[in-house]
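Reopening: structure tokens for the iron/sulfur cluster complex, inputs below.
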Amino acid sequence: MCFVEELEEKLIKALQNSADRSLLQSDLWKSISSNSREVSRALARMEKKGIVKREPFTGDSHKTYRVILIKKEQKVQISDMVWCYCFTCHDLSRCGMGQPISPENCVKLTMSLRNEFMKYQKSEEIKKAASSEKE
Ligand code: SF4
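Re-run output (same inputs, fresh job):
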């Protein structure tokens, strides 16, 4: 992870750990032991990506921004993909589109996708049932 990614990750964590997923920018850079200039640049990038939004805030003695976490940027982790048979497939080096061994007609890939989809469907049903119980 590069410096910029590390800094953004620290900012996201600090915002996630705050009471309402928001902090004053002047408190934010202090809380991660960084400097205001680096944090200001990082927040501008994150705002463009739609991860945070900043609203002007006037405190007792200074102007700053309230930084609000909108969403955590989605990153695909290798651990999210281990269900896919391709990662352990002995035919991986011979497999390719248009080849005799291909993802287009692979039963193993189809089965692992189907299993994952069924797990997803089941988890959605559980969430739906849990939310309707609350109502
Ligand atoms: S598509 Fe099928 S054959 Fe190709 S690497 Fe994945 S599991 Fe193996």
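Residues 85-86, 89, 91-92, 95, 101, 103, 106, 108-109 surround iron/sulfur cluster (CB under 6 Å). The first helix runs from residue 3 to 17. Marking as resolved unless the reporter disagrees.
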